[in-house]
Design a protein that fits this description.
Elements: H1 2-33, H2 49-53, E1 64-67, E2 70-73, H3 78-81, E3 93-94, H4 98-101, H5 119-135, E4 137-141, H6 155-180, E5 185-189, E6 193-197, E7 212-216, E8 225-229, E9 248-251
Parallel strand pairs: 1-3
Antiparallel strand pairs: 1-2, 2-4, 5-6, 6-9, 7-8
Helix pairs in contact: 5-6
This protein binds protoporphyrin IX containing FE (HEM).
Residues 74, 77, 80, 87, 90, 99, 102, 135 line the site of protoporphyrin IX containing FE.
Domain Cytochrome b5 heme-binding: 47-143
Transmembrane segments: 12-31
InterPro entries: Cyt_B5-like_heme/steroid-bd (IPR001199), Cyt_B5-like_heme/steroid_sf (IPR036400), MAPR/NEUFC/NENF-like (IPR050577)
Amino acid sequence: MYSFLQNNSIKLVISSLLFIVGSIFIQNWYFKNNNLVSNDSAVQLPLTEEDLSHYNGVGNDKLYLGILGSVFDVSSGKRHYKKGSSYHYFVGKDGTRALVTGNFKDETDEKDHVLDLKCDDIFAIINWRKTFREKYVYVGMVKGRYYASDGTETEYMKKFKIKLKECREEKENLKKQDQLYPPCNVAWSEAEGTRVWCSKSSGGIQRSWIGVPRQLYTPGDKKPKCVCIKEDTNMLKPYHGCSSTSTECYINVD
Ligand code: HEM
C-alpha cells in the first residue's frame, strides 16, 4: 500500500514538472513568434525612415531623434525639439551630420553621412550619442545607412567603426608624440613678432624638464609645429637666429 502511494506521488511530481517545463516552453515560443517579448535580448526589427518621420512632434506627441542609425525618444526634451524650437530639425529623422556641421536645412540623403568628416567631428558625434543614451530612452534602429532591414550592421556602419578606431589610434599616437615633443608656448606682439618658448608645462604637458624649441614637420601640415625637446639630437630643425640652448626663440626675425 505504502509503495503504491509512493509510486503515485513520484508520477504526480514528474508529470507536474513536465507540465511546468512544457508550459514555459510553449509560452516562450508563442511570445517569440508573435514579437511580444519586450526584454533586451529580443531581436527588434528596425523602423523605416517613413516610420521615423512620423515622430517629429507634428500630428504626433512623440519626438524621435536618429543618430548613427540609433533612435531615441527625446519627448522629455521637447523644449529643444518641438516645432518652433532651436533643434526641431533633428526629430523625425537621422540628421547626424548636422550635429557637427550645424546645417539645420540639410534634407538631402547626405544628412546622416559622416565618413568624410574629420576625427574631431567623429568624436563629437560619438559624444552626442553618449549624451542621448544617458538622457533619453533608446527606441531601436532605423533601416538605412547604418542598419539593414534585418537589424544587422551595414557595410557603411562597419566602415564607420573602422574610421572611429583609426581616429582613436591617431589620437593616442598624438598623445604619445605630445609627451615626447610637448608643444611650445606661443605669443605674438607687434613689436616682437612671434615668440615661442618652453616651460615645464608648455603644451599642457607637465614635466620635470623645460627643453628647447625646435621645428617639427608633420606630414599633411603646411607649416612646422614648435615643439620642446629635452636633448638636442640634431634631428629637428632649430629656429633661425636662435641659440641651440635657448629656451625661447623669435620667429620671422632676420
Ligand atoms: C553645431 C551647432 C549646434 C548644435 C548641433 C547644437 C545642438 C544642440 C542639441 C541637440 C541640444 C539639445 C540637447 C538635449 O537634448 O539635451 C542643444 C542644447 C543647447 N544648446 Fe546647442 N547646438 C549647437 C550650437 C549651440 C550654440 C552656438 C549655442 C550657444 C550660443 C548653443 C546652446 C545650447 C543650449 C543653451 C542648450 C540647452 C542645454 C540644456 O538646457 O540642457 N548651442 N544643442
